[in-house]
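Example record used in the benchmark description.
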Amino acid sequence: MLLQDLYIIVKVAEFRSITAAATHLDMRTATASAAVKRVEKSLGAELFIRTTRQLKLSAAGERYLPQCQQAIIMLDQAKQNMKADMAVIDGDLRIAMPSDLGRNSARLWLDEFMTQYPDLNLRCSISDSNIDFYRDAVDMALRYGSPNDASLYGFKIANVPRVLCATPQYLTDYGTPHHPDELLNHNGLLYQLYDVLYNEWQFTQGEQKFLIKMPADRASNDGDLVRRWCLASKGIALKSSLDMADDILSGKVVTLMNDYPATPTELWLVCPSKQSITPAMRLLRDLLRAKTHEQLTAIAQAGAIAKQNITD
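Model output (structure tokens):
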């Protein structure tokens, strides 16, 4: 029995589909189907019950697959331990990233990482949507906000202040707001994910909280498009300071109402489980922490955010 065949049937069991498993493993469906048949023939038992819609585990499959999964986890861990001892960093680096950060700053950070470890192959998925690790064929995801799924494992990369920003041209044309209530006289550039429109912006000053429902003439599920609208002087945006870092430092946009900070967020590197962590992932975590701290420090020195907001 081939070890690769065991990897394939484990993925077939996870997806309940030979086609989905083959897509995840980047192979032809016929290849995955042949692997399932070889394993079943070797065991002398059917592991899956074929239906018109999906595969179901047979009684034999329910007994065999959990032990098979544990064995593969142990083999993978042994391989990773060996590579760590030998300082070998190779294989595929499959990562999902948010649209704005992924297309701009993080792209450059990954280029540097790949130069440092040339035996790695990068597979990058850019999306602001939630990631399904099994469906989307990624090993890790760089995401804003702390993980809310207890089954996932993650590394916190940075505290990330949000900034209210606009171009000098927009402010010349429409005036500069100095208090949250004045935002009602301006055009918001909104982010929308699925059916949720993020048009309520919250600010604080001491113990006071201000919740403003922004008037807006446009919204997008792509954070980078919201940034581009802001650069085109179409309105005011509430964005991650990391997303706007280069624009702030270059003077293309200015931050507003710094006395009324917006609700901050966090940046995390998330993976499906603790067992899935590789030496490459740990090295990338360290690089991301260093790069984000460097960038946030530069923004703070420019006076766009408070320095204490970027430390734990």
